[in-house]
Amino acid sequence: MTTTASAPLTPRPAPPPRPALHVLLTGTALAVTALLGLVAVGALLDQPLLIPPLAASMALVAGAPELPLAQPRSVLGGQLLSALTGFAVLLVLPPGLWSAGLAGGLAFGVMAAARTPHSPAAATAVIVALQAPPALPFLTLLALACALLVATGLAGHRLTSRRTGRRYPVYWR
Q1: pTM of the complete model
Q2: Cα atoms found within 13 Å of the Cα of residue 89, Cβ hemisphere only
Q3: pLDDT tens-place string over residues 39-58
Q4: Under the phi-then-psi rule, with left for phi > 0, alpha for psi from -120 to 50, and beta for the rest, what region is 165?
Q5: Which end of the chain has the smaller Cβ count within 10 Å, N or C?
C-alpha cells in the first residue's frame, strides 16, 4: 500500500485591516458628496441620475480607488458597455426577468473582453433589460452620471491624497 503526502492546507486569509479613521471619514465624505451630486443634477434635469449601480460604483471609487474596478476606464466604459448590452438584448427579447438575467451575464463577458471590469455595471444591464428605458436619454444621463462620479473621485482623492496616501486614478488606459 502506498501513501501519498497531501499538500499542506494554506491558511485562510484574514479580513482586511480596518482603515484608519481619516481614510474612513474621507471615503465616506467622498461617496456622500458624489451621490448627493447625482441627486442634485438629477433634480435640476428633472431626471433621476441616482440608480443603485452608481452607488456601488462610487463605493469602489471612494473606498478602493486602487482597484481595477474603480478606475475611470472601468467606471465609464463598464457602465456604458453594460447598458448597451442590455439594449442589445432588448433587440431580440422583450423586457423581463429572462432578458435581465441574460443581459447581466452577457455584460460580464462584454466588460471582460473590453478590459473594463466593473461589477456594479452588470446591474445596469439588468435595469435596462427589465425597464426598457429610451436608449439615447438613458445613455446620455448614464454617461453624465459616471463622469460626475469620476470627477468627484478625482477631486476628492487629489485633495486628500497626502493625508490618506491613496491615489486616483492608478491608470487611465
Answers
A1: 0.86
A2: 31
A3: 999 899 888 888 889 999 99
A4: left
A5: N
> What is the DSSP secondary structure assignment for residue 115, as one 8-state letter?
T
**Residue at grid coordinates 503526502:** 5
Q: What grid cell was written down for 166?
A: 491613496
Report residue 20 as a C-alpha cell: 484608519
C-alpha cell at 42: 438629477
Q: Using the 8-state DSSP alphabet, how is residue 9 labeled?
A: P
Q: End-to-end CA distance of the chain: give it in Å, rounded.
A: 57
pLDDT band at 23 (very low <50, low <70, confident <90, very high): confident
Report the pLDDT averaged over residues 5-9.
72
Q: Please calculate the CA angle 32-34-39 and round it to the nearest 5 degrees.
A: 90
Q: Contact at 8 Å (CB) between 71 and 169?
A: yes
Cell of 85: 448590452
